[in-house]
Amino acid sequence: MTNSISNNAPLVEAAGAESVKKTRVATGKTIGKPELSEKAQKYYEQLKKKYGDMDFILVEPKLKEQAEANAQAYASPNKTVVLIDSDKIERMAEDEEYRAKYEGIIGNARNQINKLAQQFKSSGTSVKGFGMKIDDGGTASFFAVIDKSQAAQKQRIAKKAEEKAAQKKADAKKAEERRAEKRNEKRAEEKEKYGRTDKEDTVTITASSADELIRKIDDYLIMERSNYLETNEEKQMGRNIDFSV
To answer: What distance in Å separates the CA atoms of residue 3 and residue 5, rounded to the nearest whole number?
Structure first.
């Protein structure tokens, strides 16, 4: 079993006269080995063309949770990722009402994410990719993959300029070591909360709405920048003498 993305070659399974012929997805990206009927396969190709500015990834139903947990691996910098399982595509191909509902969800999510992308681009926030998924109840959720080093880098640049202007003395090195220890402690606490992946130098933030995603990203960036700010105690370190007895 694998949760990697693959491009599967055509495969037709033998079936009885009364069975629905299944064909493994021949084009596009997949997770696992999702299979569709011929009718669903044709509809899926139409769906991808209709939303050509989105990157569809078809998921084997039993791997839905794994796909969602590894969402950061599928994010694309150029297109919004849509994680959708083959059971939904199968039903969308057969049920016009169900199809209209889910296409509406996808279209609405696309519009919201496009606005988000423009907003973050104008603010200079580095987002490596956006994505969405739809649960079995018809609710869309969003995710964004952020370069976790961005906020820290900006703060380090500003801090370096400040240190140069102030010509900090020898105790600056010791203060930086203490700051590093505190940053590491705080990062350990925040790692689980934000689902960050140190290996890939990214953090994946998920939300149930576009507005919530904005708030969560802003909160994350504020938290990350605060890790590089001096506390009042650190600012006073080595600069004041305690004359109390």
So the answer is: 7
Reply yes or no on whether the pLDDT at 3 is more than 70. no
What angle is formed at CA 238 by the lines to CA 161 and CA 154, rounded to 5 degrees? Answer: 25
Which are the contacts of 75, defined by CB distance < 8 A and separation ≥ 6? 81, 128, 129, 130, 131, 143, 144, 145, 204
Rg (Cα) of the chain, in Å, rounded?
24
Contacts of 3 (CB under 8 A, 6+ apart): 31, 32, 63, 66, 67, 70
pTM: 0.64
Does 237 or 163 have the greater pLDDT score?
163
Statement: residue 87 has pLDDT above 60: yes
Q: In what order do the strands lie in the sheet with 80-85?
A: 5-6, 29-31, 54-59, 80-85, 127-134, 140-147, 202-207, 196-197
Q: Enumerate residues 6+ apart whose C-beta is below 8 A from 242.
A: none
DSSP H or E segment with residue 41: helix 38-50
Burial of 230 (0-12, 13-18, 19+ CB in 10 A): middle
For 92, 131, 188, 201, the CA distances from 70, given in Å and listed in that order, are 25, 12, 20, 14
